[in-house]
Structure formats: C-alpha cells, structure tokens
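Q: What structure does this chain adopt?
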Amino acid sequence: MRSIYLILFLVISSFGFSQQARLEELNSLMKPRMRVIIDNDLGGDPDGLFQLAHHLMSPSVEIRGIIASHLYEQGFGGPGTSEYAKEQAMKVFNILGLEDSADVYLDKS
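A:
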C-alpha cells in the first residue's frame, strides 16, 4: 500500500508542484462547469485515489462533497471501512495542499 502512495505522490508532485502557478492561472481563467459529488471506496484499490486527485486538480469541476464509502472487510489489504477511506482521502488532500477544498463524509451503511 505504501508503494501506491509513493507512486500517487510522485505523479501528483510532478504535476502539482512543478506547475502550481500554471494551475492557479488556469483556475482563475476557467470557472467550474460541473458540480460533482464523489462517492467512492477510497480505501480500496488506488483508482479511486487517482480519480479524487484528478477531480481536485481539475478547474472545470466544483466538488460539492465526497462520500468515503465502505468496502468489504479486509478488501485490497485495508480494513475496508468508511473511516479508513476518509483517512486515505485526507492524505490526498494533504499531499495536494488542499485540506479545506471539499467536505468528506462517511458512508453510514
């Protein structure tokens, strides 16, 4: 699981940190066109974390909320709980420096 975070960090950092000024300029020029609520098992396989990072960096998307869904118990090496999925989402927020950009809710099912 740590190697997944390392890969995610490297991909995001190569885009995010080296082109941060360009991203901010693009965000100022383009207003969000799509309002999105993300519902994903972010504690499962890494595709959900890549999807989250993509949406967070996209200037055409306004994220209204993120639902950290549960996965089956011990799914993909993690505990599979909503709490764990929220922790993983918050790690992506921290890596991108976007801690306060959207609310993350727990799936209560």
